[in-house]
Amino acid sequence: MTRPRLTLARFSALGAAAALLGGCVVGPNYKGPPTVAPQAAHAPAFHRGDAVTAGEPASHWWTALNDAELDALVDEALRSSPDLAVARARIVQARAGLKGARAQGLPTTGTTAAYLRATGLSGALGGGQASGQSAAAAGLALPSTLEIYTADFDATWELDLFGGKRRGVEGAKAKAQAADAAFDGAKVSLEAEVAQAYVTLRQLQQRMALSRRDADLERQMLDLTRQRQAGGTASELDVEKLNNQFQSTQAQIVPLQAQITEQLDRLAVLTGREPGALDAELSAAAATPAPPAVVAVGDPAALLRRRPDIRQAERQLQQANAVIGERTADLFPKVTLLGSIGYTAPELSHLFDSSSQSTILAPLLQWTPFDFGRVRAQIAEAKGADAEALATYRKTVLEALQDAETSLSRYGRQRDSLESLLRVQASAERSATLEALRQKGGTATTLEVLDTERQRVQAEQGVADARAQLTNDFIALQKSLGLGWS
User: Left if phi > 0, otherwise alpha if psi is -120 to 50, otherwise beta: which for 460?
Assistant: First the structure.
């Protein structure tokens, strides 16, 4: 039984020697991503960051809105969202592909075993007794039953002389890392989408309540004007103006409920539940969450490191670079080692005797030097894909910076807008108070008081919408910074 071990040792030694000789790896070596925005990479702060600070931003940014219901919805979405399930499945696929690529560089082994039993051989070589007599005269003893046992152990190993398979592993690893980054990006988008849907829901509910309050005031004004018309102190035109205003407000209320239902169903699906599942939980109106007084955003360099879409584009760039090496390796010969150890014996007990053994060891050379440009066309295609990945990476970096700067500008301008509307609301409240005092003094009518109160409600509505928009701009800012995946 020493011969099999010797043969396998020789086979392994030959393969190891070839692997050492195959240190060459064709194709361009990946040197990392290019510098796309050198000024941003060293800037201490964003250009549009007047309304924020450059401190370290919080990853779980939604908790700064101080809304327990929102926190619960985000947690549920991270556990149950179908979008994240899709991203997780893609990670599994990419990691399995990486394992498969690594296995391509290892030998392929197999084994077969067979048992053959043939009967009636003595009478099967020419017919009957005459044939048997001829065989006997020739000194041949044919058994009536023949049994054969065989076992074979095979191995093939394509030597990676020029690094094509190693480039395949490099590309598969980059693809798996890109899938990880895509999963992080899906989390960032999901958290922002849940928060925006929740804020929109609360804004619509508040608008519904204020619109109903406004319509009620207009109805009271309309009733009083009709009474004045009956008394001859108001015209039909005065009545029609107020009626038109009242009907317009009523018409604006009607679609609000449909919009509220839309956001409820949107939140249900985002959290992995059926439409209508959150109606009982969220139908009661609640205050719109407000962003914190101080918002930290870090610096542009941290943004470039943090954004998942940038990491994904960079990993896809290395993957495309590795494909060039894979295709280039096809220009060169391929060497495959073939090895086989076989055993054949008429009895099972002697199957693995040394006398029953046969061995085969053969190197196989494959090369197609004249393929009429097929491989070179594939190399050119891979280089084109690499150029596309490079352009995509540059575009992703620049658009990420634009996204952040635009979000910062919108957030700052919306804060200014809210401050202006707060001043309008304060003025409307003072007017309502003064008008009520005039009514007590007998110098203002009830109609004038109702009109002033309606203006106060409308100012409150403007502030409520502005606050909701500020919160949504805060959410968009956090998303643009790439927060929420760690």
Answer: alpha
Look at the block and give the residue holding tokens 């064709």: 26
Residue 408: count of CB within 10 angstroms of its CB: 25
Q: What mean pLDDT is reported for the chain?
A: 89
**What is the band of 446 on the pLDDT scale with cuts at 50, 70, 90?**
confident
User: Where do the structural domains in the chain lie, given as residue ranges?
Assistant: 33-107+166-332+379-480
- 152 by Cβ neighbours in 10 Å (0-12 / 13-18 / 19+) ranks as middle
- State the DSSP H helix or E strand holding residue 380, giving kind and residue range, or none if neither: helix 374-440
Q: In angstroms, rounded to a whole number, what is the distance separating the alpha carbons of residues 269 and 249?
A: 32
Contacts of 313 (CB under 8 A, 6+ apart): 389, 392, 393, 396, 397
Class of 33-107+166-332+379-480 in CATH: mainly alpha
Burial classification of residue 349, based on how many CB atoms lie within 10 Å of its CB (0-12 exposed, 13-18 middle, 19 or more buried): exposed
Q: What band does 11 get if pLDDT is binned at 50, 70 and 90?
A: very low
Residue 199 vs residues 260, 467, 475, 479: alpha-carbon distances, Å = 11, 10, 10, 15
The residue assigned the tokens 């495309």 is 320
The pLDDT tens digits for 284-337 are 999 999 999 999 999 999 999 999 999 999 999 999 999 999 999 999 999 989
Q: 424-436 pLDDT, tens per residue?
A: 999 999 999 998 8
Q: Minimal CA–CA distance to 4: which of 362, 364, 361?
A: 361
Name residue, tokens 């009474």. 227
The predicted-structure confidence for 92-137, as pLDDT tens digits, reads as follows 999 999 999 999 888 888 999 998 888 876 655 555 555 555 555 5
Residue 166: which of 379, 274, 325 has the closest Cα? 325
pLDDT band at residue 3 under the 50/70/90 scheme: very low
